[in-house]
Amino acid sequence: MDENTVRELVRQSYGSIATSGGNSGCCAPQTPSCCGSPAAAPPSAAELSSQMGYSAEELAAAPEGSNLGLGCGNPQGLAALRPGDTVVDLGSGAGFDCFLAARQVGPEGRVIGVDMTHEMLRKARDNAVRVGADNVAFRLGEIEHLPVADNSADAVISNCVVNLSPDKLQVFREAHRVLKPGGRLAISDVVNLAPIPDALASDPELLCGCVTGAATVADIEHWLSQAGFIDVVVSVKPESRELIASWAPGTGVEACVVSAMIEGRKPD
Fold first, then answer.
1. How many other C-beta atoms can be found within 10 angstroms of the C-beta atom of residue 67?
2. SS (H, E, C) the chain
3. pLDDT tens per residue, the chain (268 residues)?
4. Which residue(s) pair with 222 in the sheet?
């Protein structure tokens, strides 16, 4: 598929999740799984996020409706956010990570969520108004072309979104551009550890389900270095296999793809 086709597939998939509910994986939980046997009782968004590493306190602090169970980890602790920081969230969805980040940076800080899906933006903005989150703003844009000024952010975070991009090097270049000197990149995403069988690799729903778009650790490290980051660390999380197996039951994708925490820093 060409880049425009990939983006349109992702836009449609996550627009549908925003309007009708759902979680990460190849199908929304209300329907039989497209990749395996029907799930009798799909896990809730809170249960999924708990598996990703979010604490009970974090889950309770987020506005109702902001957590859709999307993601593959928790970038919050990795980002080491401080009061007064400016944070950019790539692929902000309904705003879950943005609202958690806003608590850490405080009223003197600022959080900017960027998403290309109109339905997600509408949901996120409604959530912000409802809870009076004055230090959070949501902007329409692609993560390859961020609507954010140069050298303006202390941290860039993201949760299982970069794998959806057909041009990951450009995503990292944009993250580097918007960070201040010394700024931090803290991303939770999936990485590819083994070849994905052809029958799965050609499935567009597995692309939108954060499986077949995963890059290798070596590629991610190379792209981050090319984009200008230093102190690059990609930490693979083998314990994520159970969660990833639930995205496409019975396919064995968890043998090919796992979650990882990805770190980098813009030179001072």
1. 26
2. CCHHHHHHHHHHHHHHHHHHCCCCCCCCCCCCCCCCCCCCCCCCHHHHHHHHCCCHHHHHHCCCCCCCCCCCCCCHHHHCCCCCCEEEEECCCCCHHHHHHHHHHCCCCEEEEEECCHHHHHHHHHHHHHHCCCCEEEEECECCECCCCCCCEEEEEEECCHHHCCCHHHHHHHHHHHEEEEEEEEEEEEEECCCCCHHHHCCHHHHHCCCCCCEEHHHHHHHHHHHCCEEEEEEEEHHHHHHHHCCCCCCCHHHCEEEEEEEEECCC
3. 778 888 888 888 888 888 876 554 433 333 333 334 444 456 888 888 888 989 999 889 888 889 888 899 999 888 999 999 999 999 999 999 999 999 999 999 999 999 999 999 999 999 999 999 999 999 999 999 999 999 999 999 999 999 999 999 999 999 999 999 999 999 999 999 999 888 888 888 888 888 888 999 999 999 999 999 999 999 999 999 999 998 889 899 999 999 999 999 999 9
4. none
List phi, psi (to 5°) of 242.
-60, -45
Chain centre to alpha carbon of residue 163: 8
pTM: 0.89
Matching residue, tokens 């997600």? 120
- Each domain of the chain, given as residue ranges in start order, spans 3-265
- Domain 3-265 homologous superfamily, CATH: Vaccinia Virus protein VP39 (3.40.50.150)
